[in-house]
Amino acid sequence: MFIKTAGLILRRSLYKESSLVLTVLTSSQGKLTVLARGARRKGSKLAAATQTLALAELTLFSQKGRFTLTEARTLTLFEGLREDIERFALGSYFAELLEAVADEDLPDPALLSLGLNALYALSEGNRDPELVKAAFELRLCCQAGFEPAVGACQVCGRQAMADPLFDLQGGTVACRGCGGQGVTLPQGALAAMRHIVSCDPKKLYSFALSGPARQRLCSLCEGYVLTHLGESFRTLDYYKSLKVSL
Ligand SMILES: [Zn+2]
Questions:
Q1: Which of 3, 12, 97, 121 is the least crowded, having the fewest Cβ atoms under 10 Å away?
Q2: What distance in Å separates the CA atoms of residue 204 and residue 102, rounded to the nearest whole number?
Q3: Is pTM, for the whole model, over 0.85?
Q4: pLDDT digits (tens, 9 = 90+) for 71-82
Q5: Does the domain formed by 2-76 have CATH 2.40.50.140?
Q6: Would you identify the CATH topology of the domain 79-245?
């Protein structure tokens, strides 16, 4: 059976002499493992569309639960990412997160859309990459079922909180005076978190933050991902190593 679907190449592994095994987030089948025969051969028509972080229209041949790529047409390569090693590394981290959260064979258009919008935002280059990272991390956690309850103090129920604290494990906020536990959450970071968890997906990156509040938001969103989705991500370590050395 042939299937035509849009797919984002999350990861590629070398296979045999000239082939690739791709991990693809597709619009119609969720996450798939796809064999791309001869994709590394010189002049292969599959070469462009099978690069990491390429979005392509894929024609797949499916047999007994295995998928082979027969045709691929590149829709976008997110060129802005390929011009900047740091942004490409960050995009690769987004891909690893999407892979961690996506289900095999279960379509999740909202997840694909979240991933693509994050890559567009990074690729266009007019947004603060660290804020794109923070917003993507937190919103991804929401879609994976770990939405933090940041709307009001866990104890007194007030939305306008004095000296709020964020509990990474519990994903809750509480005023210090109410006996809250966790990390100090500047008001600007709290407002940004509320925006990220509840805004229209199209507005996800439409916020600004600077100074210590920005720093805290970034460290908390990353900490939240590591606490709820996994202990470590190889691509995140790589991105951080670049930031230190550049
Ligand atoms: Zn309170």
A1: 3
A2: 20
A3: yes
A4: 999 999 999 999
A5: yes
A6: de novo design (two linked rop proteins) (1.20.1440)
